Amino acid sequence: PSRLTLAIMRFRDETGDSVVAAWPVRIQHHLSTQITGMQDIAVLYDEYLNDLIRSSFGTSDPPSDSRLSAFLRDDITYLISGSILKEGTSFGIQAALVETRDGSQLQPFRVDVAGGDQLGQASSDLAGQILAFLHTNVIQSDDEDLATWKQRRPKDWRAVEEFSTAFELILNNQDAMPRLVKASELDSTFLSP
After folding, report:
1. Strands 104-113 and 90-99
2. CB–CB of 62/81 below 8 Å?
3. How far is 26 from 120, CA to CA, in rounded Å?
4. Nearest-CA neighbor of 102 among 129, 132, 77, 127?
5. Closest by Cα among 31, 76, 37 to 53
6. Which residues fall within 8 angstroms of residue 50, CB to CB, at 6 or more apart?
7. How far, in Å, are 65, 84, 95, 123 from residue 26 at the CA level?
8. End-to-end alpha-carbon separation of the chain, Å?
9. 180 contact partners, CB below 8 Å, separation of at least 6
10. pLDDT tens by residue, 96-154
11. CB-hemisphere CA count at 13 Å for 26?
């Protein structure tokens, strides 16, 4: 596995609702905190990134993913950008993993939240989805045991993460059953032929 570098952008507020005014920075900070320190992933410090964008583009609002990807291409492998949407009385938080090499979107992610009191948990759930995808589809992309299953576009990448952890536990003669059960709970297609 190779080490990758990740920049997590401030999320765009597309709600127009004052209730979520502080959410873009909070989500960015929560994701950075959750992902920083993970093996094989280096995360660009969020305040440094925000200052870099402000000084380079003259605004705190991040430019388009393609323009930002071109700007970060030499130093950053992947970019996470996202938006906050209002849907009735709740909010949707969408994120995209973008490859800076060519600006292509690799995977979308999404969580729903009713209000600010759930934002921390929603950000943690979003970070879990992103990390599971990175670990199974990017860092361990050469794992042939999971290749066929990955091609089916699983419902929840955390299932692959649980299965991979179970596999490591089995190799170390440890109990893997809780991880296998969790994998099947997260995505029942994991058990299908």
Report:
1. antiparallel
2. yes
3. 9
4. 77
5. 76
6. 10, 28, 60
7. 20, 12, 14, 9
8. 28
9. 162, 163, 166
10. 999 888 888 888 999 999 988 999 899 999 998 898 888 777 666 555 555 544 455 44
11. 17
